[in-house]
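S.,

Sequence below, as promised.
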Amino acid sequence: MNKKKLIPFVSFLFLLRGVQAHCPLCTAGAAIAAGGAVYLGIHPAAVSLFIGAFAVSTGWWMSNWRWFKKHRIPFQKSLIVIGSFVLTVLPILPVLESKPYPLYFSFLGEYGLIYLLNLSLIGSILGGLLVSIAPWLSRKLSSMREGGRVFPFQGVMITLGLLLIASILIQVTF
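The prediction came back faster than expected:
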């Protein structure tokens, strides 16, 4: 192979300012990690909690890109977050293979009513909600102290703490 043909492509890489991507490869990597965690015995709902958190935080991150700040449409940030969630979580749900959880309401109807819940979908929605609530909790905690943050990396610690507590509760409960 002629190495001189590669010089324009390699020199092009040095002109790039930075890489920002949310791609199918990232989703596939998350799916492989989720499948591995389920294979090791972690409940699919606990794994999906982190996948939902990943999807929503990626959506928040993408909504702050410079291109999206120039091109505004109504509810743009929310649409980007929801789009990131849907495009990340839905392809991964078949990999998790969570059994439906029956929810029985005996007081509805003549024989009762049973809803089958997809715990992986519920876990990913919960993970997305926890990631969305964590910055508000961090600001609330900082406002209690006039000097600002209570401890270093407060926002990250609150987010990971919430996710860890919720995943432990899910793992122990189901």
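The helical segments are 7-13, 24-39, 44-63, 66-70, 76-96, 119-144, 154-173.

Coffee later?
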